[in-house]
Structures are given as C-alpha cells and as structure tokens.
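Hi team,

As requested, here is the filled-out complex form for the ME8 run. I kept the field names the same as last time so the parser does not choke. Let me know if anything looks off before we queue the next batch.

— J.
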Amino acid sequence: MSTVYLTTPIYYVNERPHIGHCYTTVLTDVAARFHRLFGRDVFFLTGTDEHADKVADTAAAHGMTAPRWADRNAEHFRAAFELLGVSNDDFIRTSQDRHKHRVGRYIAALQASGHVYKGAYTGWWDASQEEYLTETTAKEHGFKSPVTGKPLAQRTEDNYFFRLSAFQDRLAGHIAANPEFIMPEARRNEVLGRLRQGLTDVPVSRSAGPAPADGQAWGVLMPDDPAHKVYVWIDALFNYLSVIDTEPRRRYWPPAVHVIAKDILWFHAVIWPCMLMALGEPLPRTVYAHSYFVRDGRKMSKSLGNFVDMGLIGGYCRDFSRDALRWFLATQGPLGSTDADFAHDKFVEVYNAELANGLGNCAARVGNMIEKYCAARLPDPGPHASGLDDLPAYAWPSTTAALVRAAVAHADSFEIDQALRRGVDLVRQVDGYINATEPFKLAKRAAAGTPEHARLSAILYHCAEALRIASLLMSPAIPDACAALWNAWGCAPPAGTPLSALSQWGGPHSLRPGAPLHKGSALFMRADPAAPPPTPMQAPADPGTGPSAS
Ligand code: ME8
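And here is what came back:
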C-alpha cells in the first residue's frame, strides 16, 4: 500500500491558535482524509514549536516558567484541532524528550560529516521572527523586520554553522528536475530568484545564555557544548523527521507534502532540504506554501486586534456546525498564491449555496421522495440502472467515474478546493436531473406496474446513488454531515475500502434496491444572510485554572 506523510508547520506556543493555524491544519486534514479515502497508508502530523525565545519571554512576562506556559498553550492548540475534527496521527511538541534526543543525534551526525562547523557570525537579527537577515535583505527593508516592521539589531555571535553554500547546485538541480517540489509556481519562482543570489552558510546554534534557576535549559543543547543551544528553527524543522524516525514509522519517509504558508518558505524549501541532503535522507516530494487569510480585506495582526480567534471560530462551529467552517476554510481559503478574505457575508453565501441549498437540500428532496413515493425503500431501477435512454446527457456511470477521477487527480496535485468541488458538481447534476425529469409530477400518474412507475423508480435510484458518490467526494471536508447521511441511507462505507471500489456505479457498495432509506434530519439548516455574525464563544479557560484545579 502506498504511504503518504503529510505535515503542518508546528506552531509557536507564545500565543493561542487563530484562524491561520486552523486553516493550514484543516486543509492538511482534508488532504489526509482524501488520501485515506483513496486507500493509502497515511501519517498526518501537527504539533507545537516551543523553544523560541519569544515563548520564554512571553512566559516570563506572565510570571510563568517556559515549560508551564508551553503546556498551557500547547493544550489550546490541541483543543482547537479537536474542536475542528482534525484527524492527526500524532501531535509533536518539541519540548518532548523523544524529539530532543534525536535533534542532538542529527546535529552530531552533521558535525561528524563536517557539514556543521564552528565560527563567528554577524548579521541583522529580527527578534520578532527569531531569524537573522542578510545585509541585503535588511537594507531592502530599511533595517526593519519585513514581517512585523520592528527594528532589526546588528549582532555578532560565536556560532555553529551549517554549510548551506555547499548545496547550492544540488538544490537548484533538484528544483529544476522536480517542478512539484515547490508549489504553487509563484513560490517556486520566488525561491529560484533568491537562489540565484547565492547561498551562504547559516547558523544552527545560539548562545544558551546563563542556566535558568531550575537548571533546565529551554531548548536542545549543542552536543558536547552546553554554552550553545540548537537554533529554534533548526530544532523545529527536525520535528518532521524525529517523529518518524522509529522503526514502525520509518516507512512514511519522505514526506509527501509539507503544508506551510508563504512566511516560512525559505526554511522549508531551502534550508531543510539541504540539511536532509547532508544527512543522506530522501527529500520531501512537495513543499506547498499557501497564502494568507486576511480579515475584511486587512492583514490580521496583533496591533490591529483583528485576528479571527478561537472564540469566534467556536461561534461559527456552534451556529453553523464545524463541518460548515471546515468547508469554508477548505474551499475558500488562501490556497494558491493569492490571499483570501475571512468575511461573514461570503461565509453565509458559500454555506447556503453549497451546503444548505446544495448537498443538504438535494439529499432532503431525494430522501423525501423515496419516503413518500417508495415507502422509504430504495426503488429498483430495473433495466434502467445506468440511466434513461431518452436522457443520454445523464450517463451516470461515466459521469460519476469522470468526476471521481478528476477529484483524485486534484487531490494528488494538492488542489484540495477543486477536489471538493467535483462533489458539488455532482450534486448540481442531480439537481438538474430532478428538474429535467420532474419525478414529483411523474409520481401523480405512476401506478405500480406502469412504465411511469418504472421510470420514477429509476430516476430516484439514480439520484440517490449519484448523491451517495457526491457525498464521498465531499466527505473529507464535511465528515460529520456525510456520516449522518450515510447513517440515514444505510450506506456507511466500510473502513479501509478505497474510493475506487466505493464509487463504482452499481458496484458492491452501491445502494441496494429494496433497502430501507430514511430522509434523516436536515444536514445543514439554511442561514439568514441578514442575521449578524455569530457571537464569540467564551475563550476556553487555561488548563489547570478551572475550579477543580488545586
Ligand atoms: O512559523 N493565514 O509558527 P507560527 C494563513 N513555529 N495561515 C496562517 C496565517 C494567516 N493569516 N497566520 C499563520 C512558525 N498561519 C514556526 C514554524 S515549522 C518547522 C516551524 C499559519 O505559529 C501558516 O501555516 O508563526 C504559517 O506558516 C504558520 O501558521 C506559522 O505559524
């Protein structure tokens, strides 16, 4: 069975999760669910990046130790992803021993092979991003952080360096030979442009500073040199390998897709693959860097105070369902190279068009008619199982097979929104078919045994079977609603059965004529576009601060 390893960035625990973190994680979750549906052996990883100085600083500002602060916020990330139904197979925290031990080993191996060496470094330090910028980049941005606009500081440090410069040609060759290595194309061109300026060696350590009062360094110390610790970015990148570097999991390497946003492209598309080359590891197939969610047309930032936070996200989940939020993120998010807006009007428009009036309404119409005209049993299509002879435009076996093939191809190219839209296309076809055939009119003159009755039975069978296949294609984004539909229609796919078998028209997993089929409750209630946006849920309490905490 083919393996698919998918990752999200690991998120800084200095702050709580927001819509950006939820977007990347839900998007990757939808991809993971697609691959599972295709019958592949998937490993899906997310987690938290904990050893940043800004984590220690924020903890101190709150009068807390870094580990306690990290525990608290890592729990908020875990809870957020649980709320959104994220199906990750593991959750890595870089403060865990299993990770720290292996980071030490990777660095020691790079030292032994001469790829890491000791030297002095002078550069422009961007404290807000925890990264050094070159003289050229610093100058270009007026010696201010290109991300946050905060002033840069010139710093000189004794450091360990990674011989990044030695990999320039190999990396350029790899990018040229593998167009899918950096996606989307705009991001690939960006990396190629910067690569042409030449690669210089990069520091992989920082001064460890004085030992904290508890004697526990916050970070991973350099092997045999406790005055230095591994630079948080290097420590963090290794998470993708450390989690998999155990016997039963090794089969997942290399990653299929590292999903990230454009802010952290250089680390993932340049520094990380070169470190992997130095370690002799095969490279990830794709680094996919999506764009940003903005809010009502403006960048989300702390200073503007306009982050879509977990309170509001919880409000959407409560008022519309978590499937509805997942659908919006996965189909309207900043996939590709343009930013996307999180706007309430748009949310309601998409929700009504594709979920409430789309799959939800169509399933209710079909379920209703089968209850009413066929005594809640799926009718037998008789000789018309594949379609009606006088309506060749609706050739269901080939129509559904083509949409399934297209969805698989899109998901394989990480066009997650397009993959989901093939399900919407199929729902629209069913709506069109109902309008063209008017089964509700036919029912009035369809006494048992008449040709009208045979026609009505065939039409309703086609509608139900096509909707079953549409729901399979939409299920990676809306698993709860699809499970409810399958439950009402008695067609829950057996675990582990691949889509190729499940989606076969008239195949072993098709709806069985004569089987009970219930309308079930509405999958998505229509939303009033004039109603105000959800009120935020109360922010979740910090773990360990509730009334039962001692
Ligand atoms: O960079 N729109 O962590 P981080 C879409 N720890 N996605 C967004 C977003 C937005 N407005 N804002 C954030 C770090 N993201 C490092 C990563 S990986 C080895 C180490 C998402 O907490 C997006 O995925 O700052 C982005 O790359 C990530 O959060 C940055 O999260």
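Two things worth flagging: The CA atoms of residues 67 and 216 lie 10 Å apart. The first strand starts at residue 3 and ends at 12.

Thanks,
J.
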